[in-house]
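Q: A reviewer asked whether we had any structural model of the full assembly, not just the individual parts. We don't, so I'm hoping you can provide one. Inputs are below.
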Amino acid sequence: MRTPIAMLALFGVFGTLPAWIEAIGLYPYLGVEVMVWIIFGLGFNLLLGYGGLPSFGHGAYFGVGAYAFGLAQLHLYPNLWVCLAAATLAGGIAGALVALFISHRRGIYYALLTIAFGQIFWFVAVKWHSVTRGEDGLLNIKRLPADFGVASFGLGELDSLYWFAFGVFVAMVIALWRLVHSPFGRVLVAIKQNETRARFVGYNVWLYKWLAFTLSALVAGLAGGLFALAQQSAYPNVMSLQQSGFVVMMTLVGGGLVSFWGPVLGAVLFFVARDLLGAYTEAWLLWYGLLFMAIVLFKPEGLAGLWQGWRLRRKPARVPAEA
Amino acid sequence: MALFAAERLHKRFGHQVVLEDVTMSFEEGRLSGIMGPNGAGKTTCFNLLTGRYTPDRGRVRFDGRDITGLAPQAIARLGISRSFQVMNLFDDYTALDNALIATPQVRAMGFSMLSNLRENSLARETLERVGLGAKAHVKARDLSYGERRALEIGVALAAQPRLLFLDEPTAGLGTEATARIARLIGELKRDLTIVLIEHDMKFLFGLADHIYVMHWGQVIAQGSPAELRANPWVQRSNLGALQ
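A: Here is a predicted structure for the entire assembly that you could use as a starting point for your response.
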């Protein structure tokens, strides 16, 4: 495993972001949003990039996390940790259940099933009015203080919210980086490359696929919880097919298929495009969509792939020392 | 008692009967061969023996245990490994990682999410054994056809099997490469029980202790290479013509 310079750079950028973000015409809350989506995207990429399993309904688990965060606060116990744990668990449980029904599939059937299940969650969120408040969603979710026993930090201010999100972000990036380099992650990639062979050298492929989906939904749930915390609300739209599409686009545009850092690039580009292009035209998604199409057509390895290709061309003589 | 025995296996796909009443047994420490023309049911037979398909009737036993209908991963964990005629490698992984993933050590810690995947000596040794020691860090997809064939055996070997099934390990290879694989199998034979599908007669007759001849989904003859040469049935069939 190489020293993750990219990781240090990433933490460097987000660790200093509040100091310079306004100077380039943007605002700190954007940083929170991007970090939430990076967590979501990295968890999603565990499934798509590492497992080769296309989930096109992943917004559902993000949404389940957001609702669980709000419901835990309103009905269970108003404590930040309880709410975040509820969000993570709810996403994970929803994912674990769905994965039971889809883990024997792959390719297009897998993708279609994930869409169908995603739509079920969305439908429930819209129709189960007594719990989810239907189209309006859960409003007035509070930013509860982060209680560390010895000290408690209020998250009401944008500043403290930012640093809290940054803390979770750092922990999740490290955890997921660990995960993809662990035996589990490596076996998952082996299964992506050749399911048959993995089975015949003794791996329970179904269980790995189930676990990958569950873990990915767990991370989505946590991201959804953070989102509810930041937005102070949870509403059906976060579960929509469109939101599910966003995370797919970010991951692919960024190059999640060839790099761990793909979803990071994709999420940053997505939100910067939204805010910069969005200032000029309401049709900014059209341009982002066109970029997405161009990448799928001409450079499926995405931005990370472009970067890797450029580095390879610059250093063609880099041959493994053993040769 | 034989290490591995298949009793009266039947298999049909739709209306097509592909295996009929196939009984075979493989003795420990021997190299057994299965031969026959294309479409004789050799690979289907392998697929039944290694759990890819479940037989419609009949039983499969390994080391005294009934393994009929077990999933491939369960059979693999008992110590039965196989290679494939159409190559099945982890193409984006290096030769070393291909072997590594197959080792029992990695399999045992496959659900570990915190540790690092470490190299182990078994994977290295396996690569040396199949002649790919110098190519350890080359991606499987970048290996030559012959090297990929060797790696195909290497992955099966890395699982440390007691019984190794090899499905046409020389398919598509030239004479020189075929000779290399023959040498390798000759060496493996010393400490492994091997079952080999092959339609290169010379190759098989030179290596096998016992051979089953299949045709139209049935075993039509069996015996040592010497016995088969003398068998009038076999002499009249394609085998005689090629000898």
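A: Points you may want to mention in the reply: The first strand of chain B starts at residue 4 and ends at 13. The two ends of chain B are 33 Å apart (CA to CA).
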